[in-house]
Amino acid sequence: MTEPRARAARHKGQLNFEPEIRDMLFAFGDDKYPLDETVRILDEITTDFVIETSHIASKAAEYSGRTKLKIDDFKFAIRGDEILTGRVRELLAIDKELKESRKQFDTGEGRVGLERGGRRKKEDKVEEKEEAKAENSKPTQDEGLGEEDDE
């Protein structure tokens, strides 16, 4: 990485990826309960990698005149690591494929009367108000629809 950075004091001693690291260690053949020191060191390495990569990506976005990070900024930050770049490309391709698959099965159920952004059409609002008025004006059985009171 470009420059060594001290971990922020608020993150010191805090494990950000503990359950994931424990599971990965076990999946790769370590003991079911790995040493706490091993988990702590791997968590520190992982956290530092995420912080450094995010810092480089934010510099790339800043250089491009943007304040928000894009995927391309992270691709730029990891461009030197061929294995990591290949894995990112693979995961992005899978993500794109999953989104396309979801679109094919999207039936729009549960979105009756809703448009983009969750807003309703004006006509739908007017129709709902008219239906509500019509329902409120109907007499109910309690109000007496020809039934006789037994007193």
From TrEMBL:
Q: Which domain of life is it from?
A: Eukaryota
Keywords in alphabetical order = Nucleus, Transcription, Transcription regulation
State its location(s).
Nucleus
| Predominant location | nucleus
GO CC list = transcription factor TFIID complex
- State a single Gene Ontology molecular function: protein heterodimerization activity
Tell me the segments the record calls region Disordered.
105-151
Name the family the entry cites.
Belongs to the TAF13 family.
The identity of this protein, by name, is Transcription initiation factor TFIID subunit 13
Native species: Cladonia borealis
